[in-house]
DNA sequence: TTAGGGTTAG
């Protein structure tokens, strides 16, 4: 353990004899920097003092750098203060050391001190300060630093230019970032990477197109990709559409260019690839990447676990979660826990989720807002609204928009529309701005509880929070009006809504028409649904069934012919359940299961019970008697 | 001797 009184003594130490061991000391310091080892840094520091090198500019610079990299900025400052004559290297190293340790205001204060002291900043100082302004998203300070940069003619430096592009992007001033990029006399791969990263951060529709356009221009200008480029691009590689598979192509690019950055030894690229394959429903390819990694950190394990969860393979996710701790000797962090919660609750129900919650309490992670949000969601979905509310009220100390949205959606799921609206209003009173997910949550809650007036009133005011209607929000309104039986009003809303109605809109009208037995409206809604979603066989089958129920066989034949003509085939629906680590799957009218007779016999008895009785103990008794027979 | 981009979740 480092003590500051000991460090102070070291910095004051002046030996009587100075020996020419500078080179060996520099090597030792370089080793401390490479290993980021505090022990080695302290040993080097002791040697520096013993040899009387405490005023040696190069050695002191390295020492400040070493302490900063060992996350010890206070020790770095002590060394800095002990230097009588400070040059620009020494100033820059501590300014950068503060920045690396997240001490942005200290970094800026030191920059001011440097200027007051009459020491001129150079291109290294400016690039660090631009980065600091970006980190704290302070565009005004950024402008000030940019002014100093232009005045001193540092604008031609590529690293400085890249740092200002980063700063302007982080401050949301993409136009200014592009202006810096456009006017750079010379660019490197990083300049393109920073621009691509900046565009990615913009969010919203069309970002992907802009990113790929930047990539095209980058290639036209003769630049290749490095690891940073690829890791920025992988999140934009969705599932292959049959024509191009950018994710696979980038993976090949990595393998071909293995001299520069090989996935086996690069955590970042490995994690990005696993994530990309998981999100594009190719979790097994992701697993191959994971298996090829020479070493795996918590990010790699979590990315792999998350891939399995996203693809519904909860058993494998749970297995890997155990392996991470036993084989990998890695303790789960909050992201690992958040990732595994859906698997736990799916396999173990409320008990599985509670086990994760208990682990989080033991590790003192239970007040982390993101973990609380996942727990609120899990408890709501597992049927325990009371536990969800307890987490929301007592564990979730600093609530964000997702915390409120999760709780509001939970009330909606349980048909408690008035509680959802009450909480939505409380959220607004707390000054938290709703996002479109909050609005979807509260509107669907209104729909389930037939609170049409309240829902329409909420919809009317969303623009006050900078929100525009989305297709999801509009679908909630159609669903809400439709469920309450106001089918004509729902159709009028569709006709006047500000967006082109898509499958979710017509699907909502279909459901409402079925609910209220309005076959004319159902016919119309299905026709529009098929028009906007012509490749979904389910729509044709449902419409055909509708005609069949009214014995309109000509119409049935017409729909079936259209399906055949378009080459559409409906895959049979499948459901499954895991009992004692064995998964049992069932298709429609499936009789392949060895307990099939018992299952159908029970179903015959369950149907009238479900339709007539609300007493759950009757159902439980019935189920238990059949389990004993099976 | 000092400077720059990328990783998992809700």
TrEMBL record:
Any matching Pfam family: E_motif
Protein name, UniProt field: Pentatricopeptide repeat-containing protein
Sample GO molecular function, one term: RNA binding
InterPro entries: E_motif (IPR046848), PPR_At4g14850-like_plant (IPR046960), PPR_rpt (IPR002885), TPR-like_helical_dom_sf (IPR011990)
Organism: Daucus carota subsp. sativus
Keywords: Repeat
UniProt PPR repeat ranges: 87-121, 157-191, 297-331, 400-434, 435-469, 536-570
PANTHER family reported in the protein's UniProt record: PENTATRICOPEPTIDE REPEAT-CONTAINING PROTEIN (PTHR47926:SF540)
Protein's GO biological process: RNA modification
Organism lineage: Eukaryota, Viridiplantae, Streptophyta, Embryophyta, Tracheophyta
């Amino acid at each position: 353990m480092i003590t500051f009184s000991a460090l102070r003594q070291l910095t004051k130490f002046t030996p009587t004899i100075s020996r020419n061991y500078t080179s060996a000391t520099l090597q030792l310091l370089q080793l401390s920097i490479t290993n980021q080892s505090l022990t080695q840094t302290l040993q080097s520091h002791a040697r520096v003092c013993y040899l009387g090198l405490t005023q040696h500019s190069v050695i002191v610079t390295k020492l400040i750098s070493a302490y900063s990299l060992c996350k010890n900025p206070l020790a770095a400052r002590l060394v800095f203060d002990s230097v009588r004559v400070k040059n620009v290297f020494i100033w820059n190293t501590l300014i950068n050391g503060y920045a690396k340790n997240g001490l942005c205001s200290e970094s800026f204060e030191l920059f001011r001190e440097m200027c007051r002291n009459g020491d001129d900043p150079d291109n290294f100082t400016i690039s660090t300060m631009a980065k600091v302004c970006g980190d704290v998203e302070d565009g005004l300070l950024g402008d000030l630093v940019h002014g100093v940069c232009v005045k001193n003619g540092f604008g031609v430096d590529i690293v400085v230019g890249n740092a200002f592009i980063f700063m302007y992007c982080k401050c949301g001033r993409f136009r200014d970032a592009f202006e810096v990029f456009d006017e750079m006399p010379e660019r490197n791969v990083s300049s393109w990477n920073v621009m691509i990263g900046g565009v990615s951060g913009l969010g919203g529709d069309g970002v992907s197109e802009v990113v790929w356009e930047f990539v095209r221009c980058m290639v036209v200008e003769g630049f290749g990709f490095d690891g940073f480029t690829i890791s920025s691009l992988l999140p934009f590689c969705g599932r292959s559409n049959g024509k191009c598979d950018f994710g696979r192509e980038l993976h090949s690019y990595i393998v071909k260019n293995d001299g520069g950055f090989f996935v086996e030894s690069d955590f970042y690229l490995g994690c990005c690839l696993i994530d990309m394959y998981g999100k594009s429903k190719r979790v097994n390819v992701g697993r191959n990447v994971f298996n090829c990694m020479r070493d795996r950190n918590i990010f790699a394990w979590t990315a792999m676990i998350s891939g399995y969860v996203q693809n519904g393979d909860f058993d494998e996710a749970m297995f890997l979660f155990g392996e991470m701790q036993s084989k990998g000797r890695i303790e789960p962090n909050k992201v690992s826990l958040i990732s595994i919660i859906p698997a736990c609750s799916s396999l173990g129900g409320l008990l599985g989720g509670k086990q994760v919650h208990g682990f989080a309490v033991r590790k003192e992670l239970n007040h982390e807002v993101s973990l609380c949000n996942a727990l609120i969601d899990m408890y709501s979905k597992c049927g325990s609204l009371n536990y969800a509310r307890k987490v929301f009220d007592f564990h979730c100390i600093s609530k964000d928009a997702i915390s409120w949205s999760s709780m509001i959606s939970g009330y909606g799921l349980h048909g408690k529309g008035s509680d959802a609206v009450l909480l939505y209003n409380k959220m607004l009173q707390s000054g938290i701005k709703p996002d479109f997910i909050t609005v979807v949550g509260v509107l669907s809650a209104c729909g389930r509880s037939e609170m049409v007036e309240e829902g329409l009133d909420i919809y009317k005011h969303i623009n006050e929070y900078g929100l525009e209607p989305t297709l999801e929000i509009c679908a909630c309104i159609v669903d809400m009006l439709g469920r309450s039986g106001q089918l004509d009003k729902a159709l009028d809303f569709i006709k006047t809504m500000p967006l082109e109605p898509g499958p979710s809109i017509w699907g909502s009208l279909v459901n409402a028409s079925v609910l209220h037995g309005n076959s004319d409206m159902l016919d119309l809604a299905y026709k529009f649904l098929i028009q906007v979603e012509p490749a979904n066989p389910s729509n044709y089958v449902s419409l055909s069934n509708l005609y069949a129920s009214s014995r309109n066989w000509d119409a049935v034949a017409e729909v079936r012919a259209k399906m055949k003509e378009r080459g559409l085939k409906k895959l049979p629906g499948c459901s499954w359940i895991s009992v004692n680590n064995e998964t049992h799957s069932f298709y429609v009218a499936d009789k392949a299961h060895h307990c099939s007779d018992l299952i159908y016999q029970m179903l015959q008895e369950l149907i009238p019970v479900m339709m007539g009785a609300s007493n759950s103990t009757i159902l439980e008794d019935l189920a238990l008697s059949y389990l004993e027979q099976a």
